Amino acid sequence: MGSVSQAYLESDAVKETKSLISELCRQFYNLGWVSGTGGSITMKVHDSCIPKPQQLIVMSPSGVQKERMEPEDMYLLSGDGSIISSPSPKPYPHKPPKCSDCAPLFMKAYHMRDAGAVIHSHGMESCLVTMINPLSKEFRITHMEMIKGIKGHGYYDELVIPIIENTAYENELTDSLAKAIEAYPKTTAVLVRNHGIYVWGDSWISAKTQAECYHYLFDAAIKLHQLGLDWSTSDHGPIQSVKGVSGVNGWINASKRARTDDSYCKTDPFPRCILLDIEGTTTPISFVTDVLFPYARNNVGRHLSVTYASAETQDDIKLLCSQVQDDLKQGVIGALPIPLEDAGKEEVIAALVANMEAMIKADRKITALKQLQGHIWQTGFENNELKGVVFDDVPEALEKWHALGVKVYIYSSGSRLAQRLVFGNSNFGDLRKYLSGFFDTAVGNKKETRSYVEITESLGVDNPSEILFVTDVYQEATAAKAAGLEVVISVRPGNGPLPENHGFKTINSFLEI
């Protein structure tokens, strides 16, 4: 940003940001987040004319009564963390002004995550939740409504927050916080054991909203624990014991503690997480090819016509049009131009239907197709025209893994909506209570190693080998293995042949795991 003029330092934008921090600190004090001079908050001075990394930073001071702070008590820093202006000293008994001890940690969130604001809370729940299991390196929770308030997460997703160890001095946490931010690319928070939490967001609103949701979830987890219930499982049922080992809210490292007598686990540790493909693994290929695909193909026109004006369908159309444009440029067979919207609704729909039929025929694994299919299938499930199908061994295996504290996830080329529909409306009832999350092609192509690296980072395991991937597709197995995952290939009726000497373990039933 270069040199900053005095006029800018005294501008309304700077003054308003200082006043906002004072106001928020009073709110946070009443919530118990910044009592006893603990905790802190910082935010950037929003200015659309200045690149975000160069925007000025307002930061609260250290060692002061946060509920009594005034705008003139704030520090002003440059984008690189250098102090531009400091508050004037106040008479006894006030201490000499000092910039927040959290400053080095705040700067990591600014530089590594392009944050717009960072909150450091000493809220009791954020401290206690790290103490329930003093060996845990993560806090994990799923199937709670307030998870939706955390950036990039939905109700069915598993929220994972890294936990770092506390130190005697705040600035000594800087390196471990930076390592946690790097190791958990999806997280917007880091817990500090016996201490509190750092939360960041794109703006002060995002940071505040997420901080409130995090504290709610921590409080819920503590209360569930007091009731003997496991906050980390989808049904939040009673805390399980595995082969005489007492379970503590899903914090058991099942990969080290649990064993079974089944063939896969005679010599290998039981996986901490299991990642399942759907087609040819949990579900017959014929259900997808003979039921789901024809239903989507036969109903796409009707669906688009009835829902054409809805925001959801317009988003589907926009995504599909973008894909078709790319296909036309690349000369993809079956791609047809889609007329402009002023050409008329029916002409647009006819072109969309033709393109979608070609995509279905080619069995393309692309988000534009899968998203629209998911919405068409949703209508089918809601009208009881469709029912999901899984193999007979699947429900028993899911229940067994759930009891052992193993997290089970789905990774399919079908959209996450379609996945939830299949398992939520299956021939064995709603199986979603056994599932911790869903991944689709938004995370990457299933035949690319990078996709499995991304999933590993999202799940936050210490080692990729703690994840067992089950698929029927050799290329997917190879990609997952290259990412370090353990892999077994599912051999089911109707599946395609495997290459000779493929080198992977195979199973005919999940009960063999």
Question: Can you offer a commentary on this structure?
Answer:
With 513 residues, this protein is α/β, with parallel strands linked by helices. Helix content is 37%, strand content 14%. The protein has 15 helices and 17 strands. The strands form three sheets. It has a nine-stranded mixed β-sheet, sandwiched between helices. Helix 8 packs antiparallel against helix 10 (345-361), helix 9 (311-330) packs antiparallel against helix 11 (367-382) and helix 14 crosses helix 15 (474-482).
Secondary structure blueprint with pairings:
Layout lengths: L5 H4 L2 H19 L9 E5 L12 E3 L15 E3 L5 E3 L17 H11 L3 E5 L2 H5 L9 E5 L15 E7 L9 H10 L5 E4 L3 E6 L2 H23 L14 E2 L2 E2 L7 H4 L15 E4 L8 H23 L3 H20 L14 H17 L5 H16 L10 H11 L3 E5 L4 H9 L12 E3 L9 H11 L7 E5 L2 H9 L3 E5 L14 E3 L6
Parallel strand pairs: 7-8, 12-13, 12-15, 13-14, 15-16, 16-17
Antiparallel strand pairs: 1-2, 1-5, 2-3, 3-4, 5-9, 6-7, 8-9, 10-11
Helix pairs in contact: 3-5, 8-10, 8-11, 9-11, 11-13, 14-15
Quick structural summary:
The protein is an alpha/beta fold and 513 residues long. The protein is 37% helix and 14% strand. It has 15 helices and 17 strands.
